[in-house]
Amino acid sequence: MPDGPVLRGEPDLSPHRAALAAWLCEQMGSPDLTIGQVKLLSGGAVQRNWRLELLADGQVKSVVLRAGPDVPLPESRPKSHEYSVLQAVYKHGLPVAEPLWLEPSGAVIGQPFMVSGHRPGDADRRLLLANPARAEILEHLAAALAGLHMLPIPEPHVAEMPSERVATLRGWAGDLADIPGGLIAGLNWLDRNAPDPQTPGIVHRDFRTGNFLIAGDTLSAILDWEFAGAGDVHEDIGWFCACCWRGENTQREAGGLGSRDAFYQAYMTAGGPAPDPARVHFWEVFAHTRWALIAMQQGARAAAGEYPLWELEEAAARVPGLARDIAEMIG
Residues of the chain whose pLDDT is less than 50? Predict the structure, then answer.
C-alpha cells in the first residue's frame, strides 16, 4: 500500500467524450452534434467547470459543464438542488448563466452534472479589486443581491434559520480534529448570539468577490450556486462584507470594492430590506467561522489527494489567522 495519498491529476472529460456527445445530442435534438474544444476553467477549488464548444447544424454553441469533485465538501448540495435554484433565479431575470440541462445520475461522466450557457466576463479577484469602476460594480452587485433576496422561495426548499446554520457548523466541527481555540470560542459565541428567525429569502451563501463575472464595468453573471438555499438574507450580506473576503483592500468593507454604506444604500435603493447591524455582525462572525471550518475541510481534501492540491493546502494554511480574527471579533 502507498504511504501517502494518491494524488488526483487535472480532471479530464476525454474518457467520457463519446458518452457525453451522445447525451448532448439527445438534449439538443441534433443527431449530428460533435464536441469541439474542451477547456477546464480556472478558479474551481471544489466544483469542476469545463467550457465546451458544441458543433451542430452548422452552428457553434458555447456551454459550461459543471460537475462535482471526487471528494466533495459537506455543504455542497446535489446538482439537482443547485440546478433548481438556478432555474428559479434565471426565470426572474437575475444575472446568471441560463441553466440548460441536468444529468443527475452520474451515468454519463461518472458524476452528476449540469450544463448552462456561457457568459462573458472575468472573475479574477485581483483584477476586480483593482478595477477603476469599482463603485459601479458595487451598485450592480447590491442590486442583484436585493433582487435575489426578494424572490419567492421555490419548492421544495426549506429555510434554514440562524440557529440551524450554527448547528451545521457544530456538526462539521465534530468531524474535524485539532480545532483552534479561537474557532471553538467562535462557535460558542454563535450559539449564544444566534438572532431570532425572520422572513426568509433565497440566499446564495458564497456571494463574494471572485464569484461573479464582470465584463468591463457590468455584472455579467453571479457564479457558484452550490451552497444556495433559503434562509436569513443577512447571511449573504455578512459573507460579502466579512474581512476575510476583502483581499488586501481591508478598508473597503463591501467585498474589498467599496464602502459598506454605499453597498447598503444601493441594496436598499434596489428594494432590499435595511440591513440590521447586529444581525450583520453575527453573520460576519459566522462567515469567519464557517470559512475556517471549510478551510480545514479543504486541508482534509488535500490530504486525500484531491485536485487542485495547492489551492486546498493554501486554504488550510489560513486557519490560524482566521481563528485569531474570530477571537478579536468576539472579544
Answer: 1-2
